[in-house]
Write a structure and sequence with these properties.
single chain; about 250 residues; 5-stranded antiparallel sheet; 3-stranded antiparallel sheet; about 45% helix; transcription; Tscrpt_reg_IclR_C; HTH_MetabolicPath_Reg; transcription regulation; WH_DNA-bd_sf
């Protein structure tokens, strides 16, 4: 690493602890104030540093912009893969990863069941909003305004005897999801399969994806599926940590 680059990075690291004077920064990198000033001016021109009053320097806005970009561009599929693959290998049931974008919930990854009876789904397929556990997780995290826009265009076809019909019942379901921290599809999409889902969170605590476990009813009844909820929640938290989330 070049000496100038090393000194510049040291200055940035020091400013991360709070505003510093030119004298303080010169002392940290062990050079004359004129050399430090040249480095600071270069950093300032790229918005990595900004002057705070006459005598102090602080971190500039470019660093916050880069940090946000780095966090946003992390591939949730890659980050979540170890946790989801481990859950799939331990329990053997189908694991889905889904994300929300522009009013649609899309399956972005899938880990096939190791049991003989499997369910049909594929990466890139849309998940029905009103009757899938992953969609409930993702829509429950939307702002009130955004949710109302989605509800205004949603349809509620009855797919099974358990399918939620209408926006009033659906809103009540989303309230339960928020309160419980997980969602269920109790044979609402397909009458022979049920599912549980949990949120994967990003660095700001926002829900960036949903992970679900789907099981044919002939393999496991609903109570048996709910008994695996702690496994799913632990998997979701492990995946969230890999995506930058810091648990409280």
């Amino acid at each position: 690493m070049s000496q100038s680059l090393d000194r510049a990075l040291t200055l940035v690291s020091q400013l991360a602890t709070g505003p510093k004077t030119l004298d303080e920064l010169s002392g940290v990198i062990g050079v004359h104030k004129s050399t430090t000033l040249r480095l600071l001016r270069t950093l300032e021109s790229h918005r990595f540093v900004q002057r705070d009053g006459v005598h102090h320097y602080r971190l500039g806005t470019a660093l916050f912009d880069l940090a946000n970009r780095a966090l946003e561009e992390r591939d949730v599929r890659r980050s979540a893969e170890p946790a989801l693959r481990d859950l799939n290998s331990r329990l053997g049931y189908t694991i889905h990863l889904a994300s929300y974008e522009d009013g649609e919930v899309i399956y972005i990854d899938k880990y096939e069941s190791t049991h003989q009876m499997r369910m049909y789904s594929r990466i890139g397929r849309r998940a029905p909003l009103h009757c899938t556990a992953v969609a409930k997780i993702l829509l429950a995290d939307l702002s009130s305004v955004a949710l109302q826009k989605v509800l205004a265009t949603m349809e509620f076809p009855r797919l099974t005897a358990n399918t939620i019909i209408g926006p009033t019942a659906y809103m009540a379901e989303l309230e339960r999801v928020r309160a419980n921290g997980y969602a269920v599809d109790n044979a609402e999409h397909e009458d022979f399969i049920h599912c549980i889902a949990a949120p994967i969170k990003g660095s700001r605590g926002e829900v960036i994806a949903a992970v679900s476990m789907s099981v044919p009813k002939v393999l496991l009844d609903f109570d048996g599926l709910l008994a695996h909820l702690p496994d799913l929640l632990a998997t979701a938290e492990a995946a969230s940590v890999e995506c930058g989330y810091v648990p409280r």
